[in-house]
């Protein structure tokens, strides 16, 4: 009986510590497409975007002046970060260029003309109040003529405001800028 009461008290204490109303979820919300570019990709399969470990975690990361990457379990992404970045990037490239860009696996009968791979090295809110998105992207022809395209990118977007909501908005803008570079093969 005493063991059962102790177990109930422990469970009640744990439940009190994990208040779901204190947890905020943030979506990667892309910037609206404001410009159109020529379709240089045709149809393309976007492989899952490779993110650094800290950017792949559920908590919204930020870097402090001492160089440490920090986060809080009270501020988490609404979706898996790899999945969200991949889907938003495909949507934005398509919206900017009219190309048919779909995240892998390719669901259509007609095979894609190209494959896009993005490897992110940094995707973090910095102490300088910017979001930094850097890495490389690769476009490989599958059923189209042309050679491989390899480009590096280093995008910095100011964080307008404070907190994880402002970080999420700046990250959405950074992904839109990357989509514009890929759409133009810059």
UniProtKB/TrEMBL annotation:
Residues 1-18 form the signal peptide. It comes from the Bacteria. Keywords: Signal. Pfam families: ABC_trans_aux. The keyword Cell division does not apply. The keyword Signal applies. This is Membrane integrity-associated transporter subunit PqiC. It comes from Paenirhodobacter populi. Residues 27-183 form the ABC-type transport auxiliary lipoprotein component domain.
């Amino acid at each position: 009986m005493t063991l059962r009461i102790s177990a109930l008290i422990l469970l009640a204490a744990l439940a009190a510590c994990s208040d779901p109303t204190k947890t905020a979820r943030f979506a990667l919300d892309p910037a609206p497409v404001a410009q159109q570019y020529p379709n240089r990709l045709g149809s393309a399969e976007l492989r899952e975007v490779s993110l650094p470990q800290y950017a792949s975690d559920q908590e919204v990361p930020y870097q402090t002046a001492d160089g440490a990457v920090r986060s809080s379990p009270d501020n988490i992404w609404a979706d898996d970060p790899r999945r969200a970045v991949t889907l938003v990037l495909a949507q934005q490239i398509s919206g900017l260029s009219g190309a048919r860009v779909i995240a892998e696996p390719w669901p259509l009968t007609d095979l894609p003309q190209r494959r896009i791979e993005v490897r992110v090295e940094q995707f973090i809110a910095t102490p300088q109040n910017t979001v930094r998105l850097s890495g490389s992207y690769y476009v490989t022809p599958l059923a189209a003529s042309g050679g491989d395209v390899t480009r590096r990118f280093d995008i910095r977007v100011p964080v307008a405001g404070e907190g994880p909501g402002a970080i999420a908005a700046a990250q959405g803008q950074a992904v839109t800028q990357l989509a514009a570079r890929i759409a133009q093969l810059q």
